[in-house]
């Protein structure tokens, strides 16, 4: 029986329990005394740490955001501990929270903070990402490898592109060899080949899910996605479990779309985000649902492993990275989209044959550099257009675009992005905050006011009124 | 039909009593600090008195403005500011294509379509908040009345300037100028120029503005010097209706009366 204002049937997600279990297992694994625990992110594409017998690399973001979401007073205490040691608002809020635990010595649950033995931050051009893990290195002298993120300005240059990829492969090669040498663990090349094989199997499954996400009503909302999309990305889990998990998600999402089972039963307005939310203020998703407005995702949730694009025949498919001369100057179309394709590394083939360790590493870096997460890093060039394409593919009416006062460089070109979205008929609301893990600059009351103003200006009233 | 609109502004409470599309009573007073509900009730009584009505003769009361939740007990409905501004523009300035509503706290720019529906809305970020309050506070510091503040000449090209990136910095600069014995009127011109720049950042955020008929509403319409400087800076002509200051309250009263275009989409019925 549908309730007042409800348009669609809805049902709790069955895969959610498994997602929680996998996440808990990942966190628990950090306490395993047998493993060498590092900080950072090995790769979004292939989790190469698993080719070592007992190495675990833990990313800060999921931990920092969870603490901010679930225990704000402790998050503040940890952040202050970081700030008083000179780690201010130039770093990501998640990191301020997470590393504050290290400085204080205990975690949010009161257990001792598991110290990291090394640092491998994910390479990035973004200014604050390059500082990742510095707090850990400051605290105790541990090795830190920050592979270079290679980008250049100007027209596409095949020679330069090849040289960059060669250099990236050299960086990864060195990191893996150094870890072998320092920690006395053997990198298992056969295991690595198996990991690549599984990652190749996971990718089309995730693409299928995010194609299904274009359905009205949305089978999943961003609330579910923020707990799910990190599995296999920032939250490294065993690869076979990962494959099984994403298969189960795909099957459930497919069933939901076939039966019009909505994430939010009152869906009548679809909105998107461009970035992770204010984790300490997640109630704004529920608040929007009072208007029948559902957040269908963001580039973070939907595009991390599967970038979609609208094809010339109108269909939706995986992004085609075809070479164009205007690499750095894509030409906007009158409707705000681009039809030029952006090429990252044409010298790389995702179907390449893998025989040697060098092949493994070239696959790892080639796949990583060739899209996937790179749309986050090319802010001025690519993201403004990708957002318009996202809005088109996911049929959104509106967008909420936060203006961060610090932390990662996410707010670069934000206003221009908003203008392009508005030109494409997507209503945009901004709100100001410090960063997703740091509530310093968020005015909760004002934000709710803005949401009311925005929704009413869109012709919507709260359904409960 | 007799309705009342209450605009619970940050600086002032404004009330309009409307009967059959005619304003028959008004009331205005300072917002009243912590005793906002009592202040609103007092203004309400005086507006009813002017209209020659008793409370039981009012059919509906709608409330808008930043302090709208402070008077929830008086409200038949609570409406957000963009909607009341659009409704007021529809009534006061038919065919308005763009609405700027600039008050003590908030600056808002709206684009309206031919049906008077909002097609785009921009509201100030924090660093452009409090433009009206800034002018009032600076007038007090400069020992100028609001009338005197509204009559200062435009800022001279080579005249003293204050920061236009943030009104807090602007205020510090103004104090610095006072300490250097710069004439208050010159400082006031610089202050107004800064207020214009902050308000303009909101207006310039409109992606596809239609400046065919720009209607200016809100408390700052009463400051002639500000309006002149804004016109000059944006190179625009404004329609400023007589009731511009009372526009949000009027919009609320009109909505209470069900006048004009329906601002809200009816919720679709549930599927069976």
Structure in words:
With 465 residues, chain A is of the alpha/beta class. Chain A has 2 domains: 173 residues, no CATH class; 266 residues, no CATH class. Chain A contains 15 helices and 11 strands. In chain A, the strands form 4 sheets. A 4-stranded parallel β-sheet of chain A has the order 7-6-10-11, sandwiched between helices. In chain A, helix 2 crosses helix 3, helix 2 crosses helix 4 and helix 6 packs across helix 12. The longest helix of chain A has 26 residues. Chain A starts with 8 loop residues before the first strand and ends in an 8-residue tail after the last helix. About 5% of the residues of chain A have low confidence. With 272 residues, chain B is α/β, with parallel strands linked by helices. Chain B folds into 2 domains: 102 residues, ATPase, nucleotide binding domain (Nucleotidyltransferase, domain 5, 2-Layer Sandwich), CATH 3.30.420; 147 residues, 2-Layer Sandwich (Nucleotidyltransferase, domain 5). Chain B has 8 helices and 10 strands. In chain B, the strands form 2 sheets. Chain B has a 5-stranded mixed β-sheet. In chain B, helix 7 links the parallel strand 9 and strand 10. The longest helix of chain B has 20 residues. Chains A and B meet through helix 14, strand 11 and helix 15 of A and helix 2 and strand 8 of B.
């Amino acid at each position: 029986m549908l309730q007042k204002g409800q348009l669609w049937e809805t049902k709790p997600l069955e895969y959610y329990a498994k997602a929680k279990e996998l996440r808990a297992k990942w966190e628990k694994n950090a306490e395993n005394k047998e493993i060498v625990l590092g900080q950072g992110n090995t790769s979004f594409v292939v989790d190469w740490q698993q080719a070592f017998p007992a190495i675990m690399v833990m990313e800060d973001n999921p931990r920092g955001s969870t603490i901010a979401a679930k225990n704000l007073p402790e998050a503040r205490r940890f952040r202050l501990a970081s700030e008083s040691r000179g780690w201010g608002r130039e770093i990501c809020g998640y990191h301020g929270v997470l590393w504050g635990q290290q400085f204080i010595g205990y975690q949010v649950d009161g257990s001792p903070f598991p110290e990291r033995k090394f640092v491998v931050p994910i390479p990035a051009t973004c200014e604050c990402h390059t500082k990742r893990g510095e707090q850990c290195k400051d605290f105790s002298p541990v090795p830190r490898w920050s592979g270079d993120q290679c980008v250049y300005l100007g027209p596409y240059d095949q020679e330069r592109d090849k040289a960059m990829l060669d250099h990236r492969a050299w960086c990864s090669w060195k990191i893996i060899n150094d870890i072998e040498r320092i920690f006395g663990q053997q990198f298992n090349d056969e295991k690595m080949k198996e990991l690549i094989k599984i990652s190749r199997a996971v990718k089309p499954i995730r693409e299928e899910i995010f194609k299904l996400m274009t359905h009205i009503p949305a089978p999943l909302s961003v609330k579910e996605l923020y707990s799910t999309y990190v599995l296999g990305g920032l939250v490294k889990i065993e690869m076979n479990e990962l494959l099984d998990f994403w298969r189960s998600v795909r099957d459930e999402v497919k069933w939901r779309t076939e039966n019009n089972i909505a994430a939010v039963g009152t869906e009548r307005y679809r909105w998107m985000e461009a970035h992770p939310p204010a984790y300490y203020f997640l109630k704004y998703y529920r608040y929007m649902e009072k208007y029948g407005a559902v957040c269908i995702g963001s580039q973070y949730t939907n595009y991390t492993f599967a970038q979609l694009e609208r094809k010339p025949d109108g269909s939706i498919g995986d992004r085609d990275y075809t070479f164009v001369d205007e690499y750095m100057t894509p030409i906007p179309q009158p409707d705000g989209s681009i039809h030029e394709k952006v090429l990252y590394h044409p010298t790389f083939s995702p179907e390449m044959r893998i025989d040697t360790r060098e092949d493994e590493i070239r696959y790892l870096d080639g796949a990583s550099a060739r899209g996937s997460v790179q749309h986050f890093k090319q802010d001025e060039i690519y993201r403004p257009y990708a957002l318009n394409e996202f809005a088109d593919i996911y049929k959104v009416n509106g967008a909420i675009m936060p203006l961060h006062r610090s932390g990662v460089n996410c707010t670069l070109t934000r206003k221009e992005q908003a203008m392009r979205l508005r030109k494409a008929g997507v209503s945009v609301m901004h709100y100001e905050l410090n960063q997703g893990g740091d509530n310093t600059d968020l005015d909760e009351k004002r934000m709710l006011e803005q949401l009311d103003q925005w929704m009413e200006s869109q012709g919507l009233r709260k359904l409960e009124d | 039909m007799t309705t009342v609109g209450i605009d619970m502004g940050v600086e002032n409470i404004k009330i309009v009593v409307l009967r059959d599309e005619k304003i028959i009573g008004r009331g205005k007073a300072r917002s009243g600090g912590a005793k906002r509900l009592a202040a609103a009730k007092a203004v309400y009584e005086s507006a009813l008195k002017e209209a020659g009505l008793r409370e039981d003769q009012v059919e509906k009361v709608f409330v808008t403005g930043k302090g709208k939740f402070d008077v929830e007990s008086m409200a038949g409905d609570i409406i957000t500011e963009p909607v009341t501004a659009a409704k007021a523009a529809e009534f006061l300035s038919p065919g308005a294509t763009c609405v700027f509503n600039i008050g003590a706290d908030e600056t808002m720019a709206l684009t309206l379509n031919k049906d008077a529906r909002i097609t785009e809305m921009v509201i100030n970020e924090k660093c452009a908040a409090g433009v009206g309050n800034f002018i009032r506070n600076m007038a007090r510091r400069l020992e100028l009345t609001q009338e005197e503040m509204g009559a200062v000449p435009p800022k001279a090209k080579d005249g003293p300037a204050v920061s236009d990136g943030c009104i807090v910095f602007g205020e510090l600069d103004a104090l610095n100028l006072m300490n250097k014995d710069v004439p208050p009127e010159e400082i006031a011109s610089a202050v107004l120029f800064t207020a214009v720049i902050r308000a303009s950042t909101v207006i310039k955020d409109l992606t596809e503005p239609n400046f065919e008929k720009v209607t200016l509403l809100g408390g700052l319409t009463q400051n002639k010097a500000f309006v002149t400087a804004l016109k000059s800076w944006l190179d625009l002509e404004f329609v400023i209706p007589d009731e511009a200051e009372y526009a949000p309250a009027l919009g609320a009263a009109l909505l209470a009366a069900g006048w004009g275009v329906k601002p809200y989409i009816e919720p679709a019925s549930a599927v069976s």
